[in-house]
């Protein structure tokens, strides 16, 4: 999508002066602030109603910028960055001393990502500093994959750069990297299989393993990747078959909601990349369609690769319990 460069210059000026701007990336839209602006960073948390324990990803537009925010960039991280950047892989590495602790929630590590979207890269360059950016949604809700989703979430006051619909549609893969392990803290478009296949070219003598943190490990190792996340505004359940009226009754009991009168299926099809791209849009449009329950049919054929990320988000989106009622 072609944008008037004056719009990007205006956005960069806002960022330099300590404001926040919603920007497109290839994964989802981000709510960005300059990493050098204390005011901007705090505004991210207040706008999103995000707790300070949830650290932010630093977005860079060059390898040099990535190295400036990290204390160490081990050979394995360098290898992965050269292989997958720019792209939807976020690397968790030891943080440089000057990175604002508001970004890292006081952790000793920083999450760094070099987005592939040309508009994201251009805004970072025009601002002159890396940009901290979480997904541009209220805390706990589904991420926005279009500019319109961001507008629905935050209204017209927020400056939103419209870069079209996001190509990936799901948040980046977050992985911590040590000398001999790549640990996936949040699955995403760069899959375990992609990482393993890249490693076939890793010529270093150290043997490297790719591990996937379990749900409970993710909660401690990646403080923001919570069980209750990505929730639509109506309950979502995962079922093994099209639900019968009896099963709907049981679901309504479990969730302590009135018997669904208009349960609708979220049908993601068989293609994982398409499912990822459509997931959040479909969740939003079903929530707005007058449905009172969303169900997704789990199927054995939809496994492995990018499906891991799709099911990760769906499982979190379906984690709603009666106690969470006030959130909806
Ligand atoms: O695709 C994406 O990653 C999008 C776009 C805008 O770039 N951003 C995004 O940010 O999804 P956010 O804030 O919604 O998710 C960041 C995730 C959280 O789960 C957080 O816990 C994790 O990254 N994270 C950030 N810093 C970390 C760190 N130092 N150690 C472990 N996990 C970290
Ligand atoms: Mg998020």
Polypeptide structure, described:
By secondary structure, the chain is of the alpha/beta class. It folds into two domains: 5-221, DHBP synthase; 236-326, no CATH class. The chain is built from twelve helices and 13 strands. The chain has a ten-stranded mixed sheet, with helices on both faces. The longest helix has 17 residues, at 272-288. The protein starts with a helix and ends in an 11-residue tail after the last helix. The model has no long low-confidence stretch (mean pLDDT 92). The structure holds threonylcarbamoyladenylate and magnesium ion (MG). Magnesium ion (MG) binds at residues 134-135, 143.
Main sheet specs: 10 strands, mixed
Bound molecules: threonylcarbamoyladenylate, magnesium ion
State the helix count: 12
| Structural domain tally | 2
Strand content: 15-25%
For this structure, the CATH topology of the largest domain is DHBP synthase
What's the helical proportion of residues?
Answer: 25-40%
Instruction: Indicate the low-confidence ranges by residue numbers.
Output: none
Rg calc: 20 Å
- Give the termini distance in whole angstroms: 34 Å
Q: Please state the structural category.
A: alpha/beta
Task: For the largest sheet, list the strands in their spatial order.
Answer: 7-1-2-6-3-5-4-8-9-10
CATH architecture title of the largest domain: Alpha-Beta Complex
CATH superfamily name of the largest domain?
Answer: DHBP synthase
Instruction: Please give the oligomerization state of what you see.
Output: single chain
Q: Choose one word for the global shape.
A: globular
CATH domain class of the largest domain: Alpha Beta
Total strands: 13
Mean pLDDT: 92
């Amino acid at each position: 999508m072609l944008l008037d460069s004056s719009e990007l210059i205006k956005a960069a000026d806002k960022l330099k002066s300590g404001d926040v701007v919603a920007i497109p990336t290839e994964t989802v839209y981000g709510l960005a602030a300059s990493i050098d602006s204390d005011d901007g960073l705090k505004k991210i948390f207040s706008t999103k109603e995000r707790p300070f324990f949830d650290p932010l990803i630093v977005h860079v537009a060059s390898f040099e910028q990535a190295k400036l925010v990290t204390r160490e960039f081990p050979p394995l991280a360098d290898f992965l960055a050269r292989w997958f950047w720019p792209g939807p892989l976020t690397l968790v590495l030891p943080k440089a001393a000057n990175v604002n602790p508001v970004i890292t929630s006081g952790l000793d590590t920083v999450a760094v990502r070099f987005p592939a979207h040309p508009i994201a890269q251009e805004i970072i360059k025009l601002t002159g500093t890396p940009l901290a950016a979480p997904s541009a949604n209220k805390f706990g809700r589904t991420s926005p994959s279009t500019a319109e989703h961001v507008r629905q979430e935050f209204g017209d006051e927020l400056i939103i750069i419209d870069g079209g619909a996001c190509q990936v549609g799901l948040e980046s893969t977050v992985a911590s990297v040590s000398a001999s392990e790549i640990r996936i803290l949040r699955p995403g478009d760069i899959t375990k299989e992609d990482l393993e296949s890249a490693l076939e070219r890793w010529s270093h003598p150290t043997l490297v393993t790719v591990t996937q943190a379990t749900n409970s490990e993710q909660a401690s190792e990646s403080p923001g990747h919570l069980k209750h996340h990505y929730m639509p505004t109506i309950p979502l359940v995962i079922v093994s078959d099209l639900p019968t009226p009896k099963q709907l009754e049981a679901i309504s009991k479990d969730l302590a909601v009135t018997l669904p009168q208009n349960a609708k299926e979220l049908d993601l099809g068989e293609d994982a990349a398409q499912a990822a791209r459509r997931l959040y849009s479909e969740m939003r449009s079903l929530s707005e369609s007058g449905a009172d329950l969303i169900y997704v049919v789990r199927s054995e054929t939809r496994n492995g690769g990018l499906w891991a990320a799709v099911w990760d988000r769906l499982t979190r989106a379906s984690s709603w319990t009666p106690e969470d009622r006030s959130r909806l």
